[in-house]
Amino acid sequence: MENCSIDKTLWSHINGYLSTQFIVTGCDLQIFDKLESDGPLTARQVATELELDLTATESLLNALNGINVLLKKHKGGDQETEAIFSNSVQASKHLTTAAPLSVKACVLSVKEFNYKLAANMSHLVKEGKPQVKRTYGFPAALYDMIAMGDPKLTIPFMAGMHGLANVSQREAALKSFDLSKHRKVCDLGGGTGAVAYGLAARYPNMEITVFDLPSVVACHDCFKPIDPKSSNVTFQGGDFFKDKLPESDLFILSNIIHNWSEERISEILKRVRSNLLPGGEILIVEALYEDDKSGPANTHIFNFMMMLTFEGGRQRSAAEMKELLERHGFGEFQVQKSGGLSDSVFAVKASTPVIENGNA
């Protein structure tokens, strides 16, 4: 007789959004913060102190233990005694509000932004267009909305980007290549300065300009870097498609290329190249695909969020990134896989620019 059961892995993928929701709910209801400050606690204590339903709270705590986000034990090892729960190392490190490496803002953006956007993935695949307008009714593209400076949008968005940069791009940049020879650096679209402050701590002779939209620069002090603030890091507001960029011997583009269409990327790379000093270099920090696009899984996730959010947005493989950079006058390509969420690509400004369609 044919086996009529469904593979448990497939079933887990079908219902994977619920595992996400376990974590979202824990952040939303301050459960991880409560366990961090007062734990270990019983389900009854958590429910009482946070004014939650006991039965549902106990089920959520057990579910979080089941996916290894919480720890559970019984007093004295006796299974008949009431269980107590505490944060796992990862929950303490990343899901509590006060943790330096907290991604709680990213988790809450899943609730407020990602879920609704991802629900329109079928429209993306049919149309090949981002779904922000369909989902939220925004009158303009997301970055145009951020440029308008509405704090109700800009602050939450930057909080999520700050948390992601701390656990992803900063680490990848620090693990990438020896950057000690560089003195004048521009972190293009560098947001809250998470990468810049990390590099300034590693390379005290670097002078780094974080160049981003005025609305982003205006709120960068709202976010505390995990590295010491440095006078070697300055912030400059502007539009990197229009305004003068600082002349530099190194440009850093951290999670920038994947936001834009080929045409807009060409504009960015031409402007970067023209403002690089002779022999200058470019460091790109992004999640890279394997060349056959089989993974990593997190790159698939990033890729669809870019496609859902930005016109022309997508992730690339190292081979695709190499071709892109060579086409825009960069050579001596190197790639460094970090083993984390982001990887690093490094290239040198060639002495002669590539000519495309008769234009340098």
Kindly describe this structure:
This protein is 45% helix and 18% strand. It has helices spanning 8-14, 16-28, 31-38, 43-50, 54-66, 89-94, 104-118, 121-127, 132-136, 142-147, 151-167, 169-176, 194-202, 214-217, 262-274, 297-309, 318-327, and strands at 41-42, 70-74, 83-87, 184-188, 207-212, 233-237, 248-254, 276-286, 288-289, 316-317, 330-336, 343-349. Strands 6-5-4-7-8-12-11 form a seven-stranded mixed sheet, with helices on both faces. Strands 1-3-2 form a three-stranded antiparallel sheet. Strand 2 and strand 3 form a beta hairpin. It is globular and about 75 Å long. The N and C termini lie far apart (68 Å).
Helical fraction equals 40-55%
* Sheet having the most strands: 7 strands, mixed
Q: Stretches where pLDDT falls below 50 for ≥5 residues?
A: none
What value does the average pLDDT take?
92
The total of helices stands at 17
Radius of gyration, in Å, reads: 23 Å
**Total E-strand runs:** 12
Terminal CA distance: 68 Å
* Residue fraction in strands: 15-25%
Helix and strand content put the structural class at alpha/beta
